[in-house]
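Form 7-S
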Amino acid sequence: MNLRTLVSARPRSVRQVAGRRPALYLAVATAGAVLVGVVSSGEPAAQADAQPTSVASQLGISAEQSQSAAADVVSPLEELAASRSEREARRTAAAQAQAAAEQAAEAAAAEAARVAAEQAAAAAAAEQAAQAAAQAEAEAAAARPGQGTAAAVAPAGSYQDYALSKLGGDGSQFGCLESLWGKESRWNPNAQNPNSTAYGIAQFLDSTWAGTGIAKTSDGYRQIDAGLIYIQKAYGSPCDAWSHSKSTGWY
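Output:
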């Protein structure tokens, strides 16, 4: 067996594989040329096209084989570039949405703070107005003839007796009143709630005095007058006020 026989006896598949390698080399060269052409935009287009043609000629590959091999390599690169652009676009959109959400949350918090401040200011103004009205009523009562000394003269009898007389001797209504104010202050005109402005026999808040027309006072009899005025306006009778207090804890 001579050398010619050995050469001719090589498997056909080996020759076919070997014949494909130039096409692969050409594809790689073409892809490189495409990338170089993209990066070096200042070079003439004819020069970029000349390199793959020269390589194909030297490797003995047809134009169709050259184009097919180049497409096989360039197409994945183009897909990779498109995928990267799409990911960048999604990242940008997500960042913009996050920024918009944060701005909306900050705006909502600022609006809530503004509303709360306005409500607090309105409540403070109402409290000041009530106190001013009570003070004005007290000054007006003191200026009326005979009113300045009337409150200073204490009626005879206990506070309970005075209250019963103000109720026209109605023992049923007085019983409810006695239970109500006994719970509130034990009929002590100097009773002071440590957690609020509630004061006196009826345990009125500072804002409650204004509705009675009587200024806040330590005089137990005047406190009874104010308490009965308030009960009449708010509930109609001491028993109705006592019923409300038993169900809610306040009147």
